[in-house]
Amino acid sequence: MTSIGILGSGRVGGNLARKLAEAGHQVTLGCRHPEEETAARAAGTGPRIRYADHLTTARASDVVINATPGDTALERLTGLRSQLAGKILVDVSNATRDSDDGLPGDLCYPGGSLAEQLQSALPATHVVKTLNTMLFMVMTAPESLATPPAVYLSGDDEDAKKTVTGLLGELGWQPEWIEDLGGITTARATEAMILLVPHILRRHGFQPFAVTVAR
Question: pTM of whole model > 0.70?
Fold first, then answer.
């Protein structure tokens, strides 16, 4: 059993919290204010999930998942530097600026990535980028897609990536679906994939999909 903290109590965070708690992990869902906690409980995140503020969540957990908006994540997580030191930070977000219709339009870090920014700002933390190339419901139900999907891993610490690979397996990802791309700089490739997503959504609506590799 791993103590897992999830920063962000929306659809992404709540979805991950439910599945990881069902797998037997001690899960704390980090909420910014009481109204977020009330909404998360109402959404049915599960009775085995604890609730706390972001600072307490980061301090109490061995693995921390960033499920907060990517455009403000760097400042938010830099403020938790001491609480995240020596821990694994799994970043599943995408840092984008929205178009007029509210869908991603541009990258906040062109020529780089949020994951690289986080690793630079948090040198004592092992940042791993993953699960950012799909709609949120696919994160915990990859088998629901007609075509076997891919999930990508980027990170400089091999042990941290092994730990995250184990968690992906508990979320339903088969070993052959997991693509380890290498170091944290490879996250700029998967983060750029978000620019494909709004075009698919505009044409097909909010249907589950993942950006995958076919062989």
Answer: yes
How many angstroms separate the CA atoms of 139 and 81, rounded?
27
Split into its structural domains, the chain has a count of 1
Band of the pLDDT at 38, cuts 50, 70, 90? low
b (16+ CB within 10 A) / e for 91-109:
bbbbbbeeeeeeebeebbb
pLDDT one-digit tens code per residue, 130-173: 999 999 999 999 999 999 999 999 999 999 999 999 999 999 99
In a domain, 209, yes or no: no
191 contacts 113 by C-beta, under 8 angstroms: yes
Q: Is 212 contained in some domain? A: no
Q: Largest Cα–Cα distance of the chain, in whole Å? A: 47
Identify whether the C-beta of residue 70 lies closer than 8 Å to the C-beta of residue 187: no
Is 21 a domain residue?
yes
CA angle 128, 131, 137 (to 5 degrees): 150
